[in-house]
Specification:
The structure is a single chain. The protein is an all-beta fold and 78 residues long. The chain has no helices and 7 strands. The strands form 3 sheets. The protein has a 3-stranded antiparallel β-sheet, with no helix packed on it. Strand 1 and strand 2 form a beta hairpin. The protein is elongated. The two termini are 20 Å apart.
Length: 78
């Protein structure tokens, strides 16, 4: 597979790295994170009176940044 930037072809079949199973690529997929469901606050802290409050600034759904280097695929096991 060489380059990590090259996408795998649609409906192409590949063996697993260990050779225990094969899979067929159904197509690329984009992984999105819902910032309101993450286990850590990904918002900025805003002080209101004497108590801090988490206020979300920006978009709710954000793409996974690791997909730039390692694309994600929907696959079917064969």
């Amino acid at each position: 597979m060489g380059s990590t930037r090259a996408l795998l072809a649609h409906r192409s079949q590949h063996p697993s790295p260990g050779g225990q199973y094969s899979f067929q690529v159904l197509g690329p997929c984009c992984r999105l994170f819902d910032r309101e469901e993450l286990p850590w606050p990904c918002c900025r802290l805003q002080w209101r009176s004497k108590e801090p409050s988490w206020r979300r600034i920006g978009r709710r759904f954000v793409p996974d940044l690791s997909c730039k280097r390692s694309p994600s695929y929907a696959v079917e096991l064969l």
